[in-house]
Amino acid sequence: MKYSYYYALDSGVVLGGIGTGSIEIRADGRFYDWTIFNNGSYAERQEIRRVYYLTQNDFFTGIRYGNKVRILQAYDYYFGASPYYTPWLRPIKSLEYIGEPPFAFLNFKDDFEVRLKAFSPFIPHDLKNSSLPVAIFEYEVDKDSDFIVGIKNPFESGRIEFKRDTLVFSGEVTSKDPRYGGNLCIKVVGSPWLAKADNFPLFKEWNEFREKGYISTSQGDKWGFIGNRNKKFIVILGWYFPNHLTANGKKIGHYYENFFNNCLDVVNYAEENLIYLEKMTNEFHDALYNTRGVEDWIADLVGSQLTTLIKSTWLSKDGNFYIWEGYYQTSDERKVGEHPYTDGPVNTALNTIDVSTYFIYTLTVLYPQLAKNLLLTSSRSALSYDNPLYIFYSLAMPENRSKYVERVIKDPSIPSSIEKLLQTVKEIAKETGKDPKGRIAHYIYRDLKFDEYGRNDLNPEFVLMWGLVSKYTGDIEFMKSLYPVAKEAMESVLRTHFYEGLIYSRLPSGFEWNRQVFSYFKDVNIYDNLFLVVSLLGIDSFHMSVNTFDDWTTVGINSFVSLLGISALKILNELGGDKYNVENALSLYESMLWNGEYFDLWYDPISGYRDKTCQASQLLGEFYLNLLGYSLLDKEKTRKTLLSIVKYNLKEEEGVINGAYPDGYRPLMREYENPLKIKEASIHQDTPWSGVEFYLASHLIYEKMIDEAKKVLKEVYDRYSIAGNFWNHWEWGSHYSRPLSSWLIIPAYLGLIYDGINRVLTLDPAIEELSWIIVLPDFWGRINVNKGKAEIKIIEGKAVLKKIDIKGKKIIRIVADGKVVDGDIIAEKEIIVEYE
User: Fold this and answer.
1) Contact, 450 vs 462, CB < 8 A?
2) Percent of the chain with pLDDT over 90
3) Which of 120, 221, 241, 227 is nearest to 169 (CA)?
4) 453 Cα distance to chain centroid
5) Gyration radius (Cα) of the chain, Å
6) What transmembrane ranges does the database entry give (predicted)?
7) What Cα–Cα distance (Å) separates residue 680 from each residue in 670, 684, 751?
8) How many CA atoms lie less than 13 Å away from 168 in the CB half-sphere?
9) What pLDDT shows up at residue 519?
10) Phi and psi dihedrals of 754, rounded to 5?
């Protein structure tokens, strides 16, 4: 006997709505990681982060096809199947799985074939129908057959009720239980039979199904069964579990509570609107995956990360949106000691600013209200005088600390009164100019509180995201309301950490440095405190110069951070009418860091120290400006830098590592090639982050460097297609949110720049013939570019434009909804642009 086998179960297409909890259907046809009950990795509360009320062993679909009975899973004999007791009850022989989020297509192969289309509605701009707590399964076979679905009751002492064509599972639990006040429904479209039992599997019931095509038992509440006979078998799984609580017990609930009162409402709504929900989700799928001019594998890669938008999000009853930085995957069987093999945030890390910077475009065009909500929430984190951490970060700076010590020597009562302490610190900050007011917090922590303020890239990143969301949505009120926060964010870092207009990093500025200096004192009990050691040996008493590459120490002028800063000043000038001297800052930046090929990783003008690493994200600030129709760098420097990143950072069978020395030296766990003498370089420089790679590939495509971009993307594709990881990219945890930047590949191929304020759409396609999806905050559809003509078929929304520009081409005429226009372009169906 010869078997061919490969493992492909690390991830699958995620089913559920935005912020509803989810399940995964993987390549064996089984259903994993049930977090629809506000439990497991989805939860904030530590006591339920490893609790799962259903597993992949608790749900199945079976079929009686003629005289053959099969469990529709490519798994072991299970659910009562046995080659000894019930040799006629078998798992399926093989299974073909195609994952194209939001759909999973499965073809179960035996002596006959059963096809399954599984999905949850995903419709750009339609938040209600994209956040439904529902999964829909459509099975098809070539002749009438008997289907059965079985599921274990997720309530230990629950009940199962028959409601016409629906099984309803519920139970009595305490008010702290995440299932409290909720229920689970399974509905079959048509006229199904329903059954339930206390013990399963039972040979009697399987024999009955074998002979009659149904199960008739109605005794017990441990397992529920539903089925019918047809060529097409449609199952709707719906849930309603409103008891989503933070760690301190505060209820945030779910957005779906605004529309439904129980799971029956959910499944009935899904059935009543099934034609619309499926049609629009199909339209989105087909526009995304059915391409011309773009290879299928690239479209697959772009769509793969949509799973994270379902898997890792909260959407509260009041409409607040949160996304986990990384997903602490506790349901997976493969763990290393206490931690999942993918690692991740044990405690809460939501809406992480430096990570969101890479994927905010995706949110802005797919669900603009979520992008705006993320920034509005983050804006409330701006460090203020009434936040006790203001004192902490003010006194972390030596300029303020020294004056504080002088004052306390003269008046020892200052620290004993919070009012007097705050007033003293404010006076000192005003005197020195080192006032941290306005700094943006890193992420949202436990109980929806804001985390630390120790990263100097967060402030310009907030400004860049504000600029992008404002300009693409054209929401002037949003832009104006957040402008003071954006401006103060940049003013804050320019007041405290700058060198002649450039953001300046000073120690402590990387976690690896912390570990090294702490190691000197690890055996001395009095110094058994990392914070104390760092505060004594650094310049700042605590982190104020870390960036998104936080385990990678840099000092002075960092090419990545400083270009973000200059770009943010440019945005404030353009959208806020400010007068920052961007030209002088850019000139100094280039004189310090440009080496003829790329910008050095960092240079410290005070010590003279330098690190010549080529950093993969060094041009992110320029890329943001390009998305908005602006630029800082000349094209020659941009293209040289991008080519250098591909030349030095792209490694065969690895991908684009974050940092690379031109001489090929790899510093992992050794010293860097710089004078800081850090003995054990962390993995951050030496590892590929797919979220960065997607950004880089997009930048390359915008610059018409298609071959180089494909090389980058192919490494990502090959790396994550192994073992079924394709829909789950890692960084600090699984389903890491940065790779949602994959969507940037689409506007890059279109050469798309959109000004929603002035209503101008610019296209500069990277290839001559192209057909793909186009998504903007106001409308979405399919665009076809070919031989002097660009056609936009609008699927949803309304285009209201002042101008369409095909870069470098002369527009001959524009037709909107069948009418030639010579002014405003308004269309709900189609826009045709002819050019030469």
Assistant:
1) no
2) 94
3) 221
4) 22
5) 29
6) none
7) 5, 12, 42
8) 17
9) 87
10) -130, 130
Say what the pLDDT of residue 534 is.
81
Q: How far apart are CA 558 and CA 568, in angstroms?
A: 15
| Among 468, 456, 459, 759, CA closest to 625 | 468
Instruction: For residues 328 and 495, give the distance between their C-alpha atoms in angstroms, rounded to a whole number.
Output: 37
Interatomic CA distance for residues 153 and 481, integer angstroms: 49
CA 404 to chain centre: 43
Instruction: Say how far apart CA 705 and CA 712 lie, in whole Å.
Output: 11
Residues 93 and 81: their CA atoms lie apart, in Å, by 13
Contacts of 481 (CB under 8 A, 6+ apart): none
**DSSP secondary structure string, 596-628?**
SSSB-SEE-TTT--EE-PEETTTTHHHHHHHHT
Q: Is the pLDDT of residue 341 over 80?
A: no
The C-alpha atoms of residue 436 and residue 494 are separated, in whole angstroms, by 9
Whether residue 699 has pLDDT greater than 90: yes
User: Tokens 């793969």 belong to which residue?
Assistant: 304
Q: 719 with 688: CB under 8 angstroms?
A: yes
Residue 643: pLDDT above 70? yes
The pair of three-digit structure tokens given for residue 404, joined into one six-digit string: 């504080």
pLDDT digits 0-9 by tens, 69-128: 999 999 999 999 999 999 999 999 999 999 999 999 999 999 999 999 999 999 999 999
For position 343, what pLDDT does the model report?
81
What is residue 542's predicted lDDT score, i.e. its pLDDT? 87
* Angstrom distance (rounded) from CA 765 to CA 786: 10
Residues paired with 502 in a beta bridge: 499
Biggest CA pair distance of the chain: 94
How far apart are alpha carbons 361 and 627 in whole angstroms? 9
The chain-wide mean pLDDT, for the chain, equals 96
Identify the pLDDT of residue 4. Answer: 87
- pLDDT tens track for 301-332: 999 999 999 999 999 999 999 999 999 999 87
How many CB atoms are closer than 10 A to CB 142?
11
Span 454-477, pLDDT tens digits: 999 999 999 999 999 999 999 999
> Rounded to an integer, what distance in angstroms lies between the CA atom of residue 282 and that of residue 64?
29
**Contact between 546 and 454 (Cβ < 8 Å):** yes
**Token pair for residue 328?**
């602490």
Please name the residues in contact with 266: beta carbons below 8 A apart, sequence gap of 6 or more.
Answer: 132, 133, 134, 185, 238, 239, 240, 256, 260
- State how far the Cα of 14 lies from the Cα of 797, in Å rounded to an integer: 26
Residues linked to residue 151 through DSSP beta bridges, in sequence order: 59, 224
pLDDT at residue 526 tops 70: no
The answer to whether 48 touches 67, Cβ cutoff 8 Å, is: no
Q: Which of 568, 550, 563 is nearest to 512 (CA)?
A: 550
Residue range 440-447: mean pLDDT, rounded: 96
Question: What's 341's DSSP letter?
Answer: T
Residue 390: C-alpha distances to residues 407, 482, 542, 705 (Å): 18, 21, 13, 46
Distance from C-alpha of 526 to C-alpha of 519, rounded to nearest angstrom: 13
Residue 402 contacts residue 493 (beta carbons within 8 Å): no
Q: Which residue shows structure tokens 């990570």?
A: 355
Would you report the helix, strand and coil content of the chain in percent, each value rounded to 5? 35, 25, 40
Per-residue confidence (pLDDT) for residue 339, from 0 to 100: 67
CB-side neighbour CA atoms (13 Å) of 192: 25
The alpha carbon of 551 is separated from its chain's Cα centroid by a whole number of angstroms, namely: 21
Residue 613 has which token pair? 């690493």
pLDDT in tens, 344-354: 888 899 999 99
- In whole angstroms, what is the distance from residue 167 CA to residue 82 CA? 28
Backbone angles phi, psi at 228, to 5 degrees: -165, 180
Instruction: Mark residue 657 as left, alpha or beta (left: phi above 0; alpha: psi -120 to 50; beta: remaining).
Output: beta
> Which residues are CB-contacts of 16 (< 8 A; sequence separation ≥ 6)?
22, 23, 36, 120, 133, 134, 135, 310
